[in-house]
Amino acid sequence: xxxxxxxxIDLAIGGMTCAACSARIEKKLNRLDGVTATVNLATEKAKIxxxxxxxxxxxxxxxxxxxxxxxxTAEPVYVAAAEPPKGAGNRAxxxxxxxxxxxxxxxxxxxxxxGRRLRISAWLTAPVMLMAMTPAIQFDNWQWLSLxxxxxxxxxxxxxxxxxxWTNLRHGAATMDTLxxxxxxxxxxxxxxxxxxxxxxxxxxxxxxxxVTEGADASSTIYLEVASGVVTFILVGRYLEARARRSxxxxxxxLLDLGxxxxxLVGADGVEVRVPADRLAPGDRFVVRPGEKIATxxxxxxxxSAVDVSLLTGESVPxxxxxxxxxxxxxxxxxxxxxxxxxxVGADTRLAHMARLVEDAQTGKARVQRLxxxxxxxxxxxxxxxxxxxxxxxxxxxxxxxxxxxxAVAVLIIACPxxxxxxxxxxxxxxxxxxxQLGILIKGPEVLEATRTVDTVVLDKTGTVTTGxxxxxxxxPAEGVEEKELLRLAGAVExxxxxxxxxxxxxxxxxxxxxxPAVEGFRGVPGLGVRGSVEGHVVLVGRTRLLDDHRIPxxxxxxxxxxxxEAEGGTAVMVAWDGVARGVLxxxxxxxxxxxxxxxxxxxxxLTPVLLTGDNRAxxxxxxxxxxxxxxxxxxxxxxxxxxEVVRRLRSEGRGVAMVGDGxxxxxxxxxxxxxxxxxxxxxxxxxxxxxxxxxxxxxxAADAIRLSRRTLATIKGNLFWAFGxxxxxxxxxxxGLLNPMIAGAAMAFSSVFVVTNSLRLRRFT
Length: 766
What we know:
By secondary structure, the chain is α+β, with helices and mostly antiparallel strands. The protein is 48% helix and 19% strand. The chain is built from 26 helices and 28 strands. The protein has a 7-stranded mixed beta sheet with strand order 16-28-27-26-17-24-25, sandwiched between helices. A 6-stranded antiparallel beta sheet has the order 8-7-9-15-10-13, with no helix packed on it. It has a 6-stranded antiparallel beta sheet with strand order 18-23-22-21-20-19, sandwiched between helices. The protein is elongated and about 120 Å long. The model is unreliable at 79-111 and 209-219 (pLDDT under 50).
């Protein structure tokens, strides 16, 4: 192999019917030199990484040929999609010719091939079962009517199973279809032999639904209702499963459908032209009117409005935007007319990134699924062997051919590797899709397992627990000075400053004192503050040292207020004019309104919150008190490069550590933690380093993300428990002759439907 960079490709795989299929394809692809592949049964996709250059042996066509030689179909998926493209095939119809009619595409339509196959089979099977189970309505030679009705069901209705079984047999493999085909054809073949060569064709014959007494004449027993009933039950199961799987992927399809379809593009001459949204390029300007979707990510260059971001973040309150603010594609303009300049289009947009994250997570496999895959790879041959042993043993013990045959057929039919294969991917599909609706992006299935071991959550202070924006918190005027006057003069000078403290003072002054007067002769004093003339007064705003340099004394009362403010973690500035100290203003990074509740929710999940910041200890402890974090769990005055070391130290103490952050300086810590939660309002570096992305800048979503991850993992384990438990219990019962083959077929079909519908409960997560 060369050292060429890895290339990723997604293949839509058609014809998979059970976990044995996906395991077989995955094993074959991974045998290719330099190829890493994961095949997902629920999404019907293979995610492949390989080295591809002029000298490499691996090509895209080789990967496709490898899959098709196994008897399946494969087509490249070039863009994120919620369902396989036309021609990819589906589980509901086996190897039927792919078409828009397949059940996985439109499972509720009555004109689908799978739906039509199911309906006809059901109508034909119903009278066969009714006659077999109700002796009172049996008439002379009724068995021949049963044969007439059952034959199309077994041959045509079960054709997808027989075709898939034959294809796999030619490639030396066995899957779920092998078991279904063997069982139904064996029951049907036995019935033909009994009808034409035995005594079953005569009046008074018996059927196979009842338990056959030992010593009965085997030639008078037929299994037509078993053969047709099993086919129909399994068709019902796969049809319902296809519907449920489509529901499982509905969240991702909804996410992909959010984008605007067309846009009012502003030309160089200022004229608006309506064009398809996919024609936008970075730098283009477009108009968004009230009620319209924003076509792509961009920056507001004209106008102001409120934007409804609930479809992407779950946040119900519209966000105000004005000139210079960034907006995200697919959000809705709920206010006035705005003009937006496109910054990112197509696959680079935030919506496309979210869709890729969700799809990647759905395609991946958790460690708990690996065991199921290993079991599925050998499951079918083992079941066939068990069926043969059952036949031989029961014949040798009871000498009852009918009972022995019935038990062997039941063993073949009851086995269900489908449930094993669907246990993990269906829960992942629903869980990650629901997360996307709530503004939670889960990067991969391994993230779910990390949430189980986490017991400590490290919270970055600035921008995570706090808003990251300074605000005016307190005003302390000197004796004889009006608060409004203090704010007017100080705010007027600071309005000309670009310093975060100055902007906070100016904004607070406008809110509390109204319009500010003009400033003349403004000058900034680096590291100390600002000065300027306002309404004939020479005004100073800044550190105590600025007043000292101008020989302005600070009264004891103001000095005490200054020290108290700093002890509480705020930033205090002195205000003076005309050579006299007039007051103290306190600004600080404000705590998010939801942070205290979020910390309480994290504690309720059994997590110990730790506050991590580069700020001074007093400021950090003030924030910790406000949100309910213990002083001993505050780590302050940490340099950006030391944050990852703090996480490593906590892990070395035996803790499972989750890290929540939003800045570039948090990226290393996010990557070092057992679980990284990146605030989606933060930097791209932090989002890339995190395992979970919280699209909304609300710390409460971190608790929701952990709860959803744990719930999804619990659902996966529940599914696997059911799937393993079902087979462990059902196979011995079938081998012992305690299950009729038709009941076994119904139970097998139900097991797959149960696993999928159990996963769908995650759609109700709130």
